[in-house]
Amino acid sequence: MPPAKRLRASTREWCDRNSRPKSPILTSAVQPEPTRWQKPGPMGRNDWANFHSRYQVEVTTLRNEIERLQGGKQKVSRKKKSSKPTSEDDNYLRENQQRLSRPRWQREKYITPPPEQFSYRPHLTGRSTPRPEHGRPVKKPTVPCCFQHEDLETEFWANMRFPVSRKALRACPSKKICELSQPRQFPRKAHCSMAEDQIVRRRKMTPRQWRLHLQRLEFLSKPNPRVLADLICCCS
Question: Does the CA dihedral 97-101-104-106 come out positive or negative?
């Protein structure tokens, strides 16, 4: 049996130190969210409003708790009076509440400046002043409640005329408006002018393309194999 090999002192210390189990470090799985007082930066307006409402609730609950505790019979010394909340305590709480609810950096409310008034507004020639037209929008026509015959109703609607705006009479329609005013054509006009000789005719598929096409259709017609694997087999 070969003699045991001696190790250096530094190697032995290293083996002893690394052979020990690591000490468990207990850490919570979910870290709690930091409170408002742990967050960096000053408080905003919304934070101050939330603090103000929370302070009111806490003061009310504290006052109710004091009244509840002092509601029973207690031994009161002759020298010292009962410690019920007085008007002075209410004034102190109200002053403290106003002091704490006041923001650190106060800023005045922004007031929108009035629109600038120009002393001289020239009237450009050739341009009419924008003003609403008289008689617009057009009132609804008075329609009889019933017609004795269909021909009378057709004649009534055929002779119905609406007043046309003066601006519409003087306006010059654009090319697109004239195109939209025309009745729709069927078949529709092609978006690009292309002669019939330039259109590439559709060719037939080769035998190989037809065979691949049939294989593709057969594959797409089959259900998903993963869905079939999840289904319970009822053959047995």
Answer: negative
Neighbouring CB atoms inside 10 A of 157's CB total: 10
Helix, strand and coil content of the chain, in percent to the nearest 5, comes to 40, 0, 60
Instruction: Give the list of residues 6+ apart from residue 231 with CB closer than 8 angstroms, or none.
Output: none
Largest distance between two CA atoms of the chain: 130
Report yes or no on whether pTM surpasses 0.70: no
Kindly report the three-state secondary structure assignment for every residue of 94-141: HHHHHHHHCCCCCCCCCCCCCCCCCCCCCCCCCCCCCCCCCCCCCCCC
Alpha carbon of 156 to those of 99, 164, 200: distances in Å? 77, 19, 55
Q: Which of 31, 35, 64 is nearest to 51 (CA)?
A: 35
At 141-168, the pLDDT tens digits run 889 988 989 999 999 999 988 878 788 8
Sign of the CA dihedral with 222 first, then 224, 226, and 228 last = negative
* Structure tokens belonging to residue 83: 């410690």
Tens digits of residue pLDDT in 11-30:
989 988 888 887 777 777 77
Give the residue from 98, 96, 95, 93 showing the smallest Cα distance to 62.
93
Q: DSSP labels for 158-216?
A: HS---PPPHHHHH----HHHHHHHSPPPSSPPPSS---GGGSPPPPPPPHHHHHHHHHH
136 Cβ contact list (under 8 Å, min separation 6): 165
Radius of gyration of the chain (CA): 46
- Rounded to whole angstroms, the Cα distance separating 70 from 83 reads 8
